[in-house]
Design a protein that fits this description.
The protein is α+β, with helices and mostly antiparallel strands and about 950 residues long. The chain is built from 19 helices and 27 strands.
């Protein structure tokens, strides 16, 4: 057993020697492949494209990068892996003749087996499937090469035709950016000259003189077979917008456009940019759709540019055409909600087919023509002159029945025949086959479209989003059907302004069109009331495998108000090193962990004074959560109970807020071994560590606020931003009960504190499968008032906060070259008696600054790679004589950043991402004598290189 001074709780990792055992041969093979000439794969008169560049004096670097993406032919990639060298390495093992022999052998082998399996259809099918799979793999090898070749890239043979096509593409792009006088050309001739490596290889006889006739340019000069293509851009002066005019035939559309003129993206004096013009067309289309113009499309919008008036200036004219009869602004007549339809029925309803297949007499009884239903609800072919609602097929909405009546008959009748299972709530019609389990008031609150409103695309999308966030339905759709009424047969109107409103009288003046209507049908299919998720996994710590399991149960709508009750339980074991000096000294032991959580989410705000409709369009929710955790090992037994009361709302797809007015936590440690108590005391008195606070009984009341913005998706496959702001204040009411006798008897300590953190991330999509991401994370935590340390009567640092409110750095989602919570503090770190660095004890701080940069790229199939660099540290806010160098000072903090770098392998299984990151220390500010640690990367040095295993991306 190693002494404590030499122990570490780092998770087992690949040692540098083990890494070198498999890494060095691969690197050697790649270097050999790189040393080989790439020209040996070329045919005579073929040239290898090695570099593409864009040269321009006036364009910004961002514009030049954008132009490089338009290049039709790009050279082989060398970062992060030399793709051509890998292809050459695989090509050296490639033998197409051998593969063809294997294909022939597979065909003959399975032909014989199929002959013996005649009459056995099951065996024949298996043999055919097996043969086809093997042949498919061989065909892939013949077409694309072996697996190593497919990991690389074949040489890019230069094609001048693609360069000329690129010139046209670049010229088109420049014109779209307002450079109408731009000219683009290219050069692709490089004079032949020997490189230093080529001369050395020829000197030792490893490269033979070229036997083929050398390539010549038009002047007879000899050309190098390695081509660099340079695109020469003379952009000229950028055109600007001098005047904006418009021509809109429909006066109703013109009024809507004029009312939102202040939101236009195009302004006089701005640069001509077709990207902005496209965004303006999209804005106008959305604007008019939100104003009721259901049929409006962007194809009606044209922006005409005229450069003939002023020099280097453009006059832009907005033209919105009208279809025959003009544009129509539609009002909603009925909004029907089908709450429990099957998926097939929901698709038929969304498509406008609300009928169902009937048989025999039922079909003849209900198949009367729609126009036989008169205003009194009588049927001309009915003996009684009436039609019963029972004869209406299930699934036929009130809108489908009402469609058979003319607008004038509707006004006289004043009522519509509806199925018996339809209930009206807040002007909405809810139709269900059985009893509605969810409160209609809750559902109506999520639906923002109402009868009498103008059609609005934004309200439609908000309704779908809010119904989806209820987590009550498998799917939901909002579809619209036009009402066939007198409007369809009226004389064409000049424009949409010559249309009556729904409240207009029934008499129609000449040339005035009656209002147009839509019927909205919202179809939903309920999710299972109960769902269960089980997870099993394991950890490997201290040479012990620790299994764990999680069980989650979701109960939807337990009380009829669209609530979601989530119950979860977790249990696990984790290995832990045994420390020298303990009476139970021996091999590594296990830490036992149990936990349970119960959370209830309500789809509204629970607030007094009837303010429940506050932020009703921002998906308000209320959440109650109660959780408990129990931990036990040889050194201590600890329990943690917490109750939270949260308000959540989401004003947009990307933005979410969480306000927690009540957060009550109780931490108790009923047992601490004598050995561990002495260890905590030693860390506290000699090195100023606040670790002992974690083993006190503490009461933690607090309130917090979180703002979360995320424009990326779950798989982080697009460009986006992420910003999380968190503020927490705790212990404000401690003076109310801190000196009460009944509270002192509980033995609970109370501290007041404030905590603020900010986490910003930026994601760039460089290509369909390559990404660059970076992150900056910071925070500060501090006590609001001093607290005397009553344990020994000496106040070493009176600004005490709960231990779990401190800030930590290190781990798989932080600075990955350090174990979790082991980096810091500043240039100070706890040490053992012999002066070696203590990587066992956590390093809490009050100030945190850290950042990461990561380049993500594909490797092969579902295997992805990453190169990353992390930096960061934590500091204290108060000077502490026991920890010199730990205080945050403006004139030195930037010198105390720890730096780690490494590479990662990610296995992307679509439903989860398994991550392996290998990071090594580059700069360690706590090693005052030799802070630069990169030289130890390939040495057998403890705590130099760390392997992190996790799920998902680190940030």
């Amino acid at each position: 057993m190693k002494p404590l001074e030499q122990q570490s709780n780092d998770r087992p990792r690949f040692g540098p020697r083990a890494v070198a055992a498999w890494l060095l041969p691969g690197l050697t093979a790649l270097l050999v492949a790189v040393g080989c000439s790439p020209l040996r794969l070329l045919q005579p008169k073929q040239r290898l494209l090695t570099r593409v560049a864009v040269e321009s004096e006036g364009l910004s670097p961002a514009q030049q990068e954008r132009m490089l993406t338009l290049v039709q032919q790009k050279p082989n990639r060398n970062l992060p892996l030399p793709k051509l060298a890998i292809y050459q390495l695989g090509h050296s093992f490639y033998d197409s003749t051998r593969i063809e022999r294997k294909v022939k052998g597979i065909r003959e082998k399975y032909a014989a087996r199929l002959a013996t399996a005649q009459g056995d259809s099951a065996r024949t099918g298996k043999l055919l499937a097996r043969r086809d799979r093997r042949l498919a793999r061989k065909r892939t090898a013949l077409e694309k090469g072996n697996s190593i070749m497919r990991l690389g890239e074949p040489p890019v043979i230069y094609d001048p035709t693609l360069s000329r096509r690129t010139v046209d593409q670049l010229a088109t792009y420049l014109r779209s950016q307002g450079y109408f006088r731009a000219t683009v050309g290219f050069t692709d001739s490089a004079r032949s000259k020997r490189t230093l490596i080529s001369s050395a290889l020829r000197a030792v006889g490893l490269r033979k003189p070229q036997r083929a006739a050398p390539l010549r340019d038009s002047m007879g000069g000899r050309l190098h077979r390695l081509v660099t293509v340079t695109y020469l851009v003379a952009e000229g002066q950028q055109f600007t917008l001098s005047k904006l005019t418009q021509s809109i035939a429909d006066s109703g559309v013109a009024r809507v456009v004029a009312g939102a003129r202040g939101a236009t993206l195009l302004h006089a004096g701005g640069a001509y940019n077709e990207d902005l013009i496209g965004q303006e067309r999209q804005r106008l289309e959305t604007l008019l759709k939100n104003a009721g113009y259901y049929d409006f499309r962007a194809q009606y919008i044209t922006l005409e540019a005229d450069t003939s008036f002023e020099k280097t200036q453009v006059r832009l004219r907005l033209v919105i055409a009208s279809p025959p009869g003009g544009h129509r602004a539609y009002h909603l007549r009925h909004v029907t909600v089908l709450t429990d339809v099957s998926q097939a029925r929901g698709l038929r309803a969304a498509a406008g087919d609300t009928t169902r297949r009937l048989r025999g007499r039922q079909l003849r009884r209900t198949a009367a023509p729609a126009d036989t239903l008169n205003v009194s609800g009588r049927a001309a072919n009915s003996p009684t002159g009436r039609i019963s609602t029972a004869n209406i097929p299930a699934g036929v909405t009130p809108a489908a029945v009402a469609d058979s009546l003319s607008a004038r008959r509707l006004r006289r009748a004043g009522r519509v025949v509806v199925p018996r299972d339809t209930v009206r709530q807040d002007s909405l019609l809810f139709s269900s086959r059985g009893k509605l389990a969810i409160s209609l008031g809750i559902l109506a609150r999520q639906i923002t479209v109402r009868p009498g409103q103008l059609y609005n695309q934004t309200r439609t999308q908000r309704t779908q989003r809010q119904l989806s966030n209820l987590d009550m339905f498998r799917f939901n759709t909002v579809s619209y059907r036009k009402v066939a009424d007198a409007a369809s047969t009226a004389a064409p109107a000049a424009d949409s302004s010559q249309t009556l409103t729904p409240d207009s009288p029934s008499s129609l003046p000449g040339g005035i069109r009656p209002p147009s209507y839509l019927d909205a049908v919202i179809t939903t299919s309920p999710s299972p009331r109960f769902s269960e998720t089980t997870e099993f996994g394991g950890t490997y710590v201290a040479n012990r495998v620790g299994p764990f399991g999680n069980l989650r149960l979701k109960w939807r709508n337990p009380f009829g108000g669209a609530e979601v009750l989530e119950l979860s339980a977790r249990a696990g074991l984790e290995g832990q090193l045994t420390q020298v000096g303990d009476s139970s000294n021996g091999p590594a032991t296990y830490t036992v962990q149990y936990g349970a959580t119960a959370a209830l989410v309500l789809p509204q705000f629970l607030v007094p004074f009837q303010l429940g409709n506050f932020l009703r369009n921002d998906q308000p929710r209320t959440r109650f959560a109660l959780s408990t955790t129990y931990t036990s090992n040889n050194y201590y037994t600890r329990s943690n109970a917490e109750f939270t009361f949260d308000y959540l709302w989401q004003p947009s797809t990307y933005q979410q807020y969480i306000f927690t007015p009540v957060d009550l936590g109780i931490v108790r440690t009923p047992y601490v071994s004598n050995f561990y108590r002495r260890r905590l005391s030693d860390l506290r008195t000699t090195q100023g560590s606040p670790l002992y606070l974690s083993f006190q009984s503490i009461y933690e009341p607090s309130l917090s606020f979180t703002s979360l913005y995320n424009s990326n998706d779950l798989t982080q496959t697009r460009s986006g931003h992420y910003l999380r702001l968190y503020a927490e204040v705790g212990g404000l009411t401690r003076d109310l009960y801190r000196h009460e006798q009944w509270f002192e008897q509980t033995g609970l300590a109370v501290y007041n504190f404030a905590k603020l953190t900010a986490d910003y991330r930026r994601y760039y999509r460089l290509s369909p499968q390559t990404y660059f991401a970076w992150r900056l994370n910071g925070g500060v935590a501090h006590a609001l008032t001093t607290t005397p340390d009553a344990t020994n009567g000496v106040i070493t640092n009176p600004y005490i906060i709960p231990y779990d409110k401190y800030l930590f750095v290190g781990g798989s989602n932080s600075v990955r070259a350090w174990a979790p919570r082991r980096l810091g503090t500043g240039s100070y770190a706890t040490r053992f008696a012999d002066g070696t660095r203590d990587y066992y004890t956590e390093q809490p701080g009050e100030v945190l600054l850290e950042g990461s940069a990561e380049y993500r790229f594909p490797v092969y199939s579902f295997i992805k790679g990453a190169l990353f660099t992390d930096f960061g540290n934590v500091w204290t806010l108060q000077p502490d004589a026991a920890r010199p160098g730990a205080e945050f000072l403006v004139n030195r903090f930037y010198k105390q950043f720890a730096v780690g770098s490494g590479f990662g392998i990610r296995m992307d299984f679509t439903f989860l991402i398994l991550r392996f990151d290998i990071a090594t220390k580059v700069y360690d500010p706590t090693e005052l004598g030799q802070p630069w640690r990169l030289g130890n990367a390939l040495r057998h040095t403890d705590n130099q290189t760390v392997v992190n295993v996790g799920l998902g991306y680190p940030f």
